[in-house]
Amino acid sequence: MRILFATAVDAEAEAVRRGDPRLDVAAVGVGPAAAAAGAARLLSVAEARGRAYHGIVSVGIAGGFPDRIEPGGVVIADRSVYADLGAQAPDGFLSIDELGYGRAVHAADETLTGVLRAALPGALVGAVLTVSTVTGTAQRASELRERWPDAIAETMEGAGVAAAARLCAVPYAELRTISNPIGPRDRASWQLGAALAALTTAATALGAHLAALDSQRAALGDSADRAAGIG
Q1: HSE value, Cβ hemisphere, 13 Å, CA-based, for 29
Q2: pTM of the entire predicted model
Q3: pLDDT by residue (tens digit) across 153-168?
Q4: Domains and CATH numbers, the chain
């Protein structure tokens, strides 16, 4: 089961590798445009080489809405939302959907998300926002929550990776660990070490779960071969 884990930066990729070096992970860039371009390239090259991925997971650290989750926590997206793609208007923000130029909400693949949830049963599941500019004020945080009341976290890459997955017809999911509360920008409150450590722990659990799934599939295949008199 070939799954590509796409991070924004090398520090996140290294945290995943520390959890399980068998996982196929690559840093694709910061922000939705870089993430989309990098992920699409990796997916396309793998397919051209006859080693297509069966899924892609946008993974890394994120900000969390403080009334929903604390730093060090783990979140899984049921959908990735391009929260600031649209237009400002006198009556407020107009999403890309309202403008008629595309869609802001990218639903995560249920099967791939189910794998993440089975491996990480303590993770919080909900909408994860993708923004081009990280939130740094209480007013902006309040506006995002008003627009997306069930949002749990904020990143800069998820919806970009989701767009690449859709273009390449590959299942998509998103997994994040929380480094800081969303709101007034205060670097002193960020817990990058805790978020990266949580990412390593999550990767360990996920790698073990994927290995178990592969073993089950192999055992089922052997049983089917024996039943058919093969081998």
Answers
A1: 15
A2: 0.90
A3: 999 999 999 999 999 9
A4: 3-227 (3.40.50.1580)
